[in-house]
User: Fold these one by one.
Assistant:
Number 1:
Amino acid sequence: MNHLAVTIGDPAGIGTEVVLKALANLSLTESCEITVIGSHSILELTYQHLLQQGISQDSLANPDSLNILDLPYDDDLTFGLGNRDTGKASFQYLEKAIALTLEGKFQGIVTAPIAKSLWKQAGYNYPGQTEVLAQAANTDRYGMLFVARSPYTGWMLRTLLATTHIPLSEVPQSLSPELMNLKLDLLIECLKGDFGINNPKIVISGLNPHSGEAGQLGTEEIDWLFSWLETARKNYPQAELIGLLPPDTMWVKPGQAWYGELKPNKNNIPAMNNGADAYLALYHDQGLIPVKLMAFDRAINTTIGLPFIRTSPDHGTAFDIAGKGVADATSMEAAIALAREISKIRERK
């Protein structure tokens, strides 16, 4: 049976709430064992607090019914008020999950949100959980893939970022043929290994408005991106590589595939989607603004290129609503479900 670790993230955030809400869905644990890594006392505190907020018992997993690897938290805790101590705890939960996964106890890790600023206060200087995972796995060959399934059409959106958490001013200098080769290779490998797509259709964005418009709005495309793409088409004959599409219009077809075309027709039947298997965006907001517009409550961040599975809900700690009982666990449920699905696919190989 597949075995996954689920970390609770920052104790002051919504991590414990979405974990308890997600694990109330018993279908997630079918043919999959789940160990929650965090503090039993915080999970119990959250459980009792949410019951007092009027959340029904049926909507929450009772901590006493869960398999919890308890890392005690002895400091004071106020929901919504993270600090150095909660930052330290969230790092230790992740660190423990990674260590046990590398030992072979778990096939994958599902991570609840952390606060990067509180990691820094606690002395952990990492851009995010992704970089900690990659360092522990001793690899610089990894990527951030965002996945979501449309509740309207069933189509699956997959978006990989070429660059991630860097200032916008550094993006043109950070992009290179070598980096694009790395990300495209990872994406094709992931689509085949984790999703069973052997001949993918991948759309690749330009960098500048109108993809540079023949050098009038930026020269990166004509300087090297178009020639890189032509070489990539020769190197990956199994893939249909479309691009470089202007960054604004690139998201029109994914939007139609996600929502279904809203044009009226006499039978009131949604048009067939024409979305691609994956999209390669060149920088953070270019990829994540449309992802969050379409799928904010159900998108999943999955780190590809690691020797184990890692997924995470695509939202933050939400300190402003922590402890209020209103956090939406859809993304956490989807993150657990995707990790379970990928582990089954890998197990069959």
Number 2:
Amino acid sequence: MNRFKKIMRTLLADQEGAALVEYGLLVGLIAVICVGVITTIGTSVQTAFTTIDTALP
């Protein structure tokens, strides 16, 4: 029984897996933000080019 407790303490004290999950969540959040910003900028750029195109003879 003591061996089981020792193994459980070792597993619970290991924080490397938690850090990996946190980094994964950060990368995912950054990706979502980038997609949102690029979509917004793309719409603005498209509107600007459409305005320029209609203004040209």
Number 3:
Amino acid sequence: MTSIRFHDGQTVTSLPVSALADLTPSSLTDTQMVWVDLANPSPEETSLILGTWFPVHELVQSDLRRAHQNSDDERLHHPKVEEYEGYLFVIVHALTQDSNQSDAESFRSAQLGIVIGERVIITYHADSIAAVESVLRSCDTSSRILKHGPDYLLHLLLDDIVDTFLPVLSAFEDELDLIEEAMFANGTTIPLRHILQIKRRLQVLRRNVVYMREIVNRLARGEFELVSLDESVYYRNVYDHLVRVVDQLEASRDLVMSIMEAYFSVTSNRLNQVMKVLTVFSTIFLPLTFISSVYGMNFEFMPELHWKYGYLYAWLVIIATGTIMFFVFRRKGWLR
């Protein structure tokens, strides 16, 4: 779906795609601006906007199309900023929620590509991104946003994307607290795979945030002509938010490492307890086994020697003993 917002200097109007034929980027005045949002666009829409209306390099189009490979965060293009002749190209990762749940596992990354021209901004994404929808609604209610230009709009998008990291970090912290409490509860074990999955997700999130921090830092330093120095103060504010997010991620990652160390320590302690019990049983039965092996139970007056079903009875005793021991050990948590 393609959404177009046109600012004529006074008001903001939502336009159809066909209206772009009369609003070429070269015909826009200093008081006008166009925002084209390509949300999961068709190949025809992509070709029309990025191939004809606002032509961009084929490598840019290739990077943008990787937004559709959202089944795995590793397949998305890493965040970056590049300057081309006449426009600026930015890729960042936003967070989307798969369901109505708010736990850490329900969030995943979505690629957002942004192309900035002199009076044009184009956003490209395959998934629904809350930050884009929020800024679109803000533009519909306030014409002053688009009045400041594409560089100001870019800062708003980045700021809203950073804000979406905060509930995710809170979800991770809550989940880690639950794991830590459950780990030391009697008879409770946490799968190591679950802890490693959280560690991996934190690493992916931290990598993307660090990339994004570098992007915002470059934008705040005024490296690019299409980002005015007047807007640099807003980018510095976004940079400060990212620094705090990185600090929280580092704290969460340290907590995961501490939980893993505690996991191995608790596991080792429980193993020692199990080995202690088994050693006691082995010590008790060792002399009994020695005595029975020396005498061989070869006594003349043993009533079981002449039982018709003695052999079957012996097997039943062996199976019953093994089964009882299995369930006892399992109930105690030794076989988890």
Number 4:
Amino acid sequence: MSTSGPLLGLKVIELAHIMAGPVCGQLLADMGADVIKVEKVPGGDDTRRMVPPEVDGESAAFMILNRNKRGTAINLKSEDGRSVLRRLLATADVVIENYRVGTMEALGLGYETLRQQNPALIYCQITGFGRTGPYADRPGFDLIAQGMSGLMSVTGEGAGRPPIKAGVPVGDISAGMLAAMGVLAAYIHRLKTGEGQLVDTSLLEGSIINTAWVSAIFLATGVSPQAIGSAHPMAAPYQAMPTANGWINIGAANQANWLRLVEIIEMPDLAQDERFVDNALRMQNLPALVEILSERLRQHNTADWLRQLEAAGVPASPVLSIGEMLSDPQVIARDMVVEVEHSRLGPTRTLGSPVKFSATPTHISRGAPQLGEHTREILGEYGYSDSEIEALVAAGDVIVG
């Protein structure tokens, strides 16, 4: 269990699989909550079978989403299995689930039922489209949410090119973060009133909140923006551009940085060019601007330009690969790559906690659990005797690691 963090002592039951729910659980676990991951019988979380890649037979995807949690596996199709879960939920502070709408109700474990037993329970549900509305019953995946949110229409190289989804599951990850935020807000409300409540968010909403700039354009103009590569829809120059040996991101989006940029690249006349005098004109003439800047930037390598831009205070960066990012000194300094002890593999590397606290520091203390790894430990804490646990195992109601 966690031994530090601002949520130390919070009991969380994670009835979640794949990504959005486990992201929520992981964020809470990093902040000190005791997160018990309840996996299905048989097989456990489907992420266990998302291979390759794997590390000595263990799914890399499962391990990176589920470290810092304890794990058990309960057969929710059996009455005795559901009885075990009810006992866990009777004293839980939070439950997280991302099944399809109606699944938990069909098992007799929906929010309205559980709140009768535990009125202080915070019940967090993450679905594809939310609990209400005409699409509530539809299954949802990140790809589907990215398409329906409009994200894929503004991601890619431009009009006439195929729609592109973001290279990472932004809908899943954003929904998980929204869920964690909702849980914390509900927890504050409970501290004030003693009342639990239902927290409801979805992959669709997690994707939609990422459309802020492009939604603003449509709401103001009635015109749906198109994909523009790495460029910003409202400011220029603000995008990736080629150099002699690769690519560089330049964020000279405001007037002061634009004027600094033209001095650095030794093209001061651009500041007086009637096409580029202010941001509105630069946006109107973006293709011409990018062509001019790209021709100049190709004359030196990325590192040379970065040194000059950094010295002048113009925001810029290289375009790193994932491997380069994970070894970057700033990433290492911020403890975003950490080593944890996996019960079978020994020391393994994983991502660190993205939120730091001065008074209640987070601590990533354990690797992802193997299927049913902590069943005996957890059930013992909830009053089950050794013989009762053995009977549950023999009947297939729980799995022990």
